[in-house]
Amino acid sequence: MNKHILEQFLTDLKPLGLPLMKGEHLFFQGDQVENFYYLKTGKIKLIRNTIEGGQALIHVALAGESFAEASLFSSEYHCSAIAVSTSEIMRYKKSDLLVYLEQKPAAMKGLLKMFAQQVRDLRTVNEIKNIRSAKERVLTFISHEMNEDKELYLSMPLKDVAYKIGLTHETFYRELKKLEQARKLQRRDGFLKLL
Amino acid sequence: MNKHILEQFLTDLKPLGLPLMKGEHLFFQGDQVENFYYLKTGKIKLIRNTIEGGQALIHVALAGESFAEASLFSSEYHCSAIAVSTSEIMRYKKSDLLVYLEQKPAAMKGLLKMFAQQVRDLRTVNEIKNIRSAKERVLTFISHEMNEDKELYLSMPLKDVAYKIGLTHETFYRELKKLEQARKLQRRDGFLKLL
DNA sequence: CGAGTCGTTGAACGGAATCAATCGTCGTGG
DNA sequence: CCACGACGATTGATTCCGTTCAACGACTCG
Known about the structure:
The structure is a homodimer. The first copy, chain A, has 2 domains: 3-110, Jelly Rolls, CATH 2.60.120.10; 126-194, Arc Repressor Mutant, subunit A (Orthogonal Bundle), CATH 1.10.10. In chain A, 38% of the residues lie in helices and 28% in strands. The first copy, chain A, is built from 6 helices and 11 strands. In chain A, the strands form 3 sheets. Chain A has a 4-stranded antiparallel beta sheet. The radius of gyration of chain A is 18 Å and the shape is globular. The A-B interface holds A 50-51, 56-59, 69-70, 72-73, 78, 101-103, 105, 108-109, 111-113, 115-120, 122-123, 125-127, 129-130, 136, 139-140, 143, 163, 166 and B 48, 50-52, 56, 58-59, 69-70, 72-74, 78, 101-103, 105, 108-109, 111-113, 115-120, 122-127, 129-130, 140, 143, 163, 166. The structure holds a DNA duplex.
């Protein structure tokens, strides 16, 4: 989620800052949707209770993301939000935001753009997850995420990256190591560089 | 994709009808984005050429869907569109559409809603693909897609469904069979019913 | 009729998941 | 300030099951 677009258009709404302790719920599945949230720092996981009583992880929102945006257009949440770590969120009143968007086509267009980007990103990850080979999956992921210098800054722990591309963290570590030993990859503090 | 929203708001744009033969390309990956498409009848598959030279199925658009919506905000297509069967397309000029949206907040809101739904669907599939067990993956998928009668109408070949949830078609067939033998599932022509 | 594709089943293999143990680091509270 | 717990990162050994390759029947379409 592109935070710049969001911040650009939503600053005049004067959102409410809100601290959240680790393990604390922001909202529960079934709650009425009254707010729109933006995660400033920390980590929030979205979980859906399945029919059989199990729990399914829907998404892990990281710093700089808005989340449950789709809820803007439904009356109640279809998932629960729990802080994985201590987090700081921005809260916008849903009705305020909708009215604001109605009045400011530019803002709405910004949001539309954001959604469009998100759709593409999701499709990309989807495609990556269909690659069977762990090695190829890792390489394809890095290729997609890296900048012009063929470098990828890791905004989250490797563990989460592994989850994002559908691998266990153990496998992910091993593949990184193999790629490094094969001189196809370089690792520096928070960066991965393709060679 | 919700066809009602789109049809409701975009009729005054007087789109151009366009027939498409089976196997014909609507656009190629890398082409300049000049139009926005809406699939009236038929079936279109979106394919992306992967780095290894292979091809990956991104999405299968069915009758009543718009597709490659994300391209509205990028200059060139990131995938190719090929008709799976003889299809009928509605074509809107991209620039016209953008101007129209700018002037009609209701239309833009409708599009926004559509995007939101799509984001949710994609997230769901994403999480399903993180389930390791093929059996659980199939069950979870059906649970999410089925209607109130616990039935799922298959709008695409089983092969494509298998791909959608990240399984080989062989595995998918076998799991369906196992579930049927375990009396947890019923198969009738184009339907799957959970028991 | 033949080409193409979907659907189906079999056998064997490989590689990712799984379980488990260790180390380092960071934050927290006593 | 140090002890402790929590968690990320790492590596090893083992197992299992989804992939892969292969072959075949059914069906449609040209």
